[in-house]
Amino acid sequence: QVQLVESGGGLVQAGGSLRLSCAASGSIFSMNAMGWYRQAPGKQRELVAAITSGGSINYVDSVKGRFTISRDNAKNTVYLQMTSLKPEDTAVYYCNAYSVVAGIPYDYWGQGTQVTVSS
Fold this sequence. Notes:
Elements: E1 3-7, E2 10-13, E3 18-25, E4 33-39, E5 46-52, E6 57-59, E7 67-72, E8 77-82, E9 91-101, E10 104-109, E11 113-118
Parallel strand pairs: 2-11
Antiparallel strand pairs: 1-3, 3-8, 4-5, 4-9, 5-6, 7-8, 9-10, 9-11
């Protein structure tokens, strides 16, 4: 089975930076897209950024200009470079991978990593 391993979360002061990484391993044929979701206390989970195997990228408006998503397709690894962090970025961040094999869709999720931004 496919596993997603996340790293890079932690505590950072406002204005600081963190880089999250997510490595997929296991029986992987092809990942059509990988991305990051987050869920803050008392709020619903939202898509932060996503990138396709072809390099197309989407961001939620609140992180545009501050976050950068990138992907190493050969290693099935996705990164999220976060700069100019704000307290409202505090959340549990989840890695997601999506693939379609023989017309069958598959979704994979990491366990989540805590990002805390202090004032």
